[in-house]
Each structure stands twice: as C-alpha cells, then as structure tokens.
C-alpha cells in the first residue's frame, strides 16, 4: 500500500511565501549598517530637519554660488531659524571669484544664511595669498564679505606671523586689520623661522 501525502492548500502555500519574503526582507534590513544618529535636541528646540554627510551651497540673486558648507551633520531648528553644523568646511567666494576656506569644530549659520560663525579651532585661509588666520571664534557676514574675530588671533604667512586681540578682514576689498596688543615676527632675509 502506497502512502499518499495530501496536497497542501493554497492558504498554506500563501503563508509559506509570506514567511519566505519576510525572512528575505529581514536579512536585507540586518545588512543596513548606515543608521542615522539620534535626533539632536538643544536649547533652541527640536529640529525640523537634519542631514548627514551634507553639502549646502548658497547662491546670490544672479545664480552664482557665494558660499558652500560641507559637514558630516547639519541640523536646522525652526524656532530661531538657525542651521548648526559639526566640523564644517566653508568655502566663501569673494567678488573676484577667489575661494576662501573657513574651518571650525562647530558652525552656526544664522537666519537667512547671512551670518556664519565658526567656533573652536576656527581658521580662515586665503590660499591665493598664502596666509591663514587661527582663532577661537570667527564670524563672517556673507552680504558684506566681512570676517572678524574678537578673540585672540594668529595670522600666519610663513615665515612671518602676527598675533592680536581683534581681527577684521573684508574679503571683497582685499583688506585686513589686526588690532589690540599686536606682536609679531618678520624675519630678515636668510634668517630661520621662529615658532609662533
């Protein structure tokens, strides 16, 4: 006598297919290693959006870029209309098309993107001129092209370096000023460089 196995019902087949598809989807989900960090929250409130690995480019009325900001994390809070960035790299374009670089541990882009503040190991570089400014807090007004620092600043253009308590630069006018308790080193021709 031959054993006869009953034929599975269509409902059982449907259940097996759903279990198999669910198992495959669970495997795909488990392989997703890029998980977003926690939703940031600070005194300004909960953000309306945050981006990871972001590149923000701002354009003027003529469609020409005047500011670019690259950051691993960008957070915008609607209460104060402020955008915060972690370890930002800012590219600032002057009226002559030159690129100026700004760096900091944190960055704050104010309402309407007019005011950029870089805090913690803030630097401003002018590659074409070969100088670099180092300070703790650096402010930049995108409409006027005015960069300034009210904290101690070190301006370097090797082999010379100058320190001061207050720094101003107008990048569109190709002009800068270092004031208050200014001291520096400018070696004569042939003399070795001293550490700043």
From TrEMBL:
Coiled coil, from the record: none
This protein's UniProt keywords: Cell inner membrane, Cell membrane, Membrane, Transmembrane, Transmembrane helix
GO cellular component: outer membrane-bounded periplasmic space; plasma membrane
One example GO MF annotation: lipopolysaccharide transmembrane transporter activity
Protein name, UniProt field: LPS export ABC transporter periplasmic protein LptC
Organism listed in the record: Litchfieldella anticariensis (strain DSM 16096 / CECT 5854 / CIP 108499 / LMG 22089 / FP35) (Halomonas anticariensis)
